[in-house]
Amino acid sequence: MQLFIPRLSLNLVLPENRAFCSYKAKCAEQMAGYSKLSRFMTEKHHPILRKYQSVAMRDLLYLQAELCHLEHCYEKQAQMDASETTERNRYNRDWFSLSTSARRDFGGKQWELAIQLREKLREYCMRKFSFASNSRFF
């Protein structure tokens, strides 16, 4: 034997709210794909995003390799400059001579490498910090 209980349905939509309900229904019909997923993620506080940690780690390793290469080139150039009989042998003690060497026709290779190292190191540190703040590895 099945018991039937009548269900009361109250329609509380006031006349001024009908337009809003119609607009909301139309938006729900049009929303699909990325829009629907992003709305769900923000409303329900369920972000579903990849961190791409292995890709980020590989990029950090590439940057380290580039830094090692630049460091090796810099050290090699510094040794060559130190063995010179010109002012280039003072570069490890005289920053001004080193930094203005290109303008004064002394080559400027060591200073150029120093600048490249600085830029690459800055990039590496920024990415490492970014990776560390979003990762469990550091």
Structure description:
The protein has 138 residues and is mainly α. The protein has a domain of 81 residues. The chain has five helices and no strands. Helix 3 runs antiparallel to helix 5. The radius of gyration is 32 Å and the shape is rod-shaped. 5% of the residues are buried. The N terminus is likely disordered.
How would you concisely characterize the structure shown here?
This protein is mostly helical.
Which helices and strands occur, and which strands form pairs?
Blueprint: H1 18-30, H2 34-44, H3 53-82, H4 95-99, H5 109-133
Low-confidence stretches: 3-15
Task: Kindly name the structural category.
Answer: mainly alpha
Biggest sheet architecture: none
The percent range for helix content is 55-70%
Strand content: under 5%
What pattern of helices and strands is seen along the backbone? HHHHH
How many beta-strand segments?
0
Number of helices: 5
Q: Give the overall shape, derived from the CA principal axes.
A: rod-shaped
**Arithmetic mean of pLDDT:** 81
CA-to-CA gap between the ends?
Answer: 66 Å
Radius of gyration: 32 Å
